[in-house]
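Handout for the seminar on molecular recognition.
Each group receives one record of this type.
Step one: identify the two inputs.
Step two: read the structure output and locate the region that could contact S-adenosyl-L-homocysteine.
Step three: write two sentences on what you found, then compare them with the reference statements printed after the record.
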Amino acid sequence: MYDIKSMTKKELEQLMEQLDQPKFRAGQVFGWLHQKHALSFDEMTNLPASLREKLAGECTITRLEICRKLVSELDGTIKYLYTLPDGEHIESVLMRYEHGNSLCISSQVGCKMGCAFCASTKAGFVRNLTPSEILEQVYMAAADTGKKVSNIVMMGIGEPLDNYQNVLRFLELVSSPDGLNLSHRHLSLSTCGIVDKIYDLAERNLQLTLSISLHATSNEKRSEIMPINRRWKIEELLEACRHYTDMTHRRISYEYALIAGVNDSKKQAEELAALLHGTLCHVNLIPVNYVREAGYEKSPKERIFAFQKVLTSKGINATVRRTLGADINAACGQLRREAENRN
Ligand code: SAH
């Protein structure tokens, strides 16, 4: 069976050719899937009945089901827990800003990366999401709220660069003029630092924002909390980032989750400023979200602002991320874990 919502328009054209259909049928099918969000081939009324039947026999149309939906009373943030066609669960979080809706999406069921502070990785890795499952999170959120998703952040469950081919295909589909037509400028991709894929991405010169989860300033500390650092050291990661900005001229966003007593000292702020000195960057300081198994605590507010002050005084642009959806546990991975634990 073809996963037809994961197919590019070009591939649909090839499929139509195999089925002895004119090329324009591919555009029609693509529109039904990615603009009208048809749930079945029966709905595709401008296709001949014989073709609809044939497609129904050879293709599946991926659907997600909303398993749970939590709405924050504080700020309207919506957290979705979806059931995938095989019964697995993933999460998306819709954040409402003045400039539009921003959706945080998952790229894998679980994660292999093993970051010490992250809930998404605690139960291990199950499988990659298909391009259509990644895309469908965007379509579902828009349909459920009746509002356009204007920004996408790939910061949900999973490591996007560990599901690289499917993520690339998602990036192509989501920006297709015949589909959602979302500019890559409105999309961020966050990685723990899969260096070889960062080089590959640089060659593609996409206009997306690359976010790097850095979280530590020494290899010793980073390797302790992020196992990926044992494979690629901070220096190798930052070298790849430099190459990325050279190629794309896009500013890189560095994520730094402040954990009390672990990575939040003034000295570490100075080290971070030194590491990033002279690069095209922005630092996003995140008070770490408490995850039961990890036991890490948020840095106190004063310490977070002191950390930020050191960075800005050294010419590094840094902001502190606002917490959204605090009452619905909107940090990624937590709802899925609850669902899995219940089963
Ligand atoms: N695997 C990717 C994307 C998913 S995680 C990555 O590592 O970037 C999205 C962001 O949330 C990352 O910056 C990650 O390090 C951060 N994160 C994970 N657990 C967190 C926690 N408990 N508190 C704060 N940030 C966390």
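Reference statements: Residues 65-342 form a domain with the TIM Barrel fold (CATH 3.20.20.70). The longest strand covers residues 89-97.
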